[in-house]
Amino acid sequence: MTVEFLIHAIVRQTMILIAQLATLGGGRAPLAQVADQVFVDLVRELERQGVSRKVSADMFGLGLRTYRRKIQRLNESVTERGRSLWEVVLEFVRAEELVTRSDVMARFARDDEAQLRSVLRDLCDSQLIIVSGSGLKTTYRPASESELAALRNTQGSEGYDDLLVALLFREGALTLPEIAALAQVETATIEGSIRRLVDSGRLQLAEDEGEPKYLARALTIPLGASVGWEGAVFDHFKAMVSTVLIKLRGGETASAKDEVGGSTYTIDVWPGHPLEAEVMSTLGRMRGELSELRKRATDATSKTGKRPAEYRRVVVYAGQAVIPEESE
C-alpha cells in the first residue's frame, strides 16, 4: 500500500509538470499520444527488468489477451504490420497530397477508429498536416516545405539543440534512429540539428564500427539563458530520477562520505529575519562553487588526454524555490 501511494503521488506531480509545460506561455502542446506512450514505455521498462507479460498484464489489471492486443495496437498499425500508425498515416497523406477523412478511414479500416482519429488530431496539432472542412468531408494535405521551415523558425532551433545535447549527455551514445525514437519524431526531422551540433563540436561521433552513434561529452547551459531551458529542465529531472533509482536498486550504500543520496532542506524566513540574507544567498553560492569545481575538473581532464573506458560520473543537482506561505 505504501509503494502504491508513493506511485500515485509521483504520477500526480509528474502530470502537474506536464500540464504546466503543455500550456506554457499560453500555448497548447498536443497531448493526444501521451497517455498511450506512457503505457508503451512502462511496458517496455517492465520487460527490460525481467517482468513477464503475464505478470505485467496483472499489474495493469488486464487479461493477458487484452494486454497483448493493446500493446499491438499502440506499437504498430494493424493495416501495415511493423510500422507505427502515426508513421503510416503521415506517409499516406504525403503520398496522396490531398485526402478526405473518409479516404483515411477506408485506407486504415482495420485499425482502431478512436486511435486513428487521435493520430490525425496529433498530426494536425503538430502542423505536419493541414486540415480544412468538417465531418467526413474534412480534407488533409501535407505541410509544404515552406510551411515546415516557417514552423521551425517560429519554434527556434537553439532550445531544441540544447535539449538534444542534454538527451545524449544523459543517455549516452545513440544512433540517429534511436535518438529519433526517444524524441518521438521522424529521423529526417532531426538530421539537420544533429549535423549542426556535430559541426559545432557540441556532439561527437562515438567510436563504433557499425551504424554511427552520437554522444555529448559536456552540457553547459548558462544561468539565466533565454533559450535552452528545456534542456536544463530535462537534465535536472533526469539527474534526480537517476539518483533515486540508484538508491532504490541498492547499488550504493550510505557511507560517511555520502557519495549517493539526496536531501531536501526547507527553511522558513521572512523580511527582517536575522538569517534571511544568508538563507537566500546560500544556493547561489553553492552553484557558483560547483560551477568552478566542474570547470577545474574539465580543465584537468583535458590535460590528461583521453578518458579511460570506465570512469565515474558524479552528478549533483540543486534547485531552489521561494514559496509564499501564510501562518495558520
Describe this structure in words.
The chain has 328 residues and is mostly helical. Among the domains are: 12-75; 82-155, Arc Repressor Mutant, subunit A, CATH 1.10.10.10; 156-238, Orthogonal Bundle (Arc Repressor Mutant, subunit A), CATH 1.10.10. 56% of the residues lie in helices and 5% in strands. It has 13 helices and 6 strands. The strands form 2 sheets. Strands 1-3-2 form a 3-stranded antiparallel β-sheet. A 3-stranded antiparallel β-sheet has the order 4-6-5. β2 (129-132) and β3 form a beta hairpin. α3 packs across α4, α5 crosses α7 and α9 runs parallel beside α12. The longest helix is centred in the last third of the chain and has 29 residues, at 276-304. The chain is globular and about 70 Å long. The protein starts with a helix and ends in a 24-residue tail after the last helix. The model is unreliable at 252-256 (pLDDT under 50).
> How can the largest sheet be summarized?
3 strands, antiparallel
Query: How large is the share of residues in beta strands?
Result: 5-15%
**At CATH's second level, what is the architecture of the domain at 156-238?**
Orthogonal Bundle
- Judged by helices, strands and strand pairing, the structural class is mainly alpha
Stretches with pLDDT under 50, minimum 5 residues: 252-256
Report the top-level CATH class of the domain at 156-238. Mainly Alpha
- CATH superfamily of the domain at 156-238, by name, is Winged helix-like DNA-binding domain superfamily/Winged helix DNA-binding domain
What is the rounded Rg? 24 Å
Instruction: Tell me how many strands there are.
Output: 6
- The amount of helix comes to 55-70%
- How many individual helices? 13
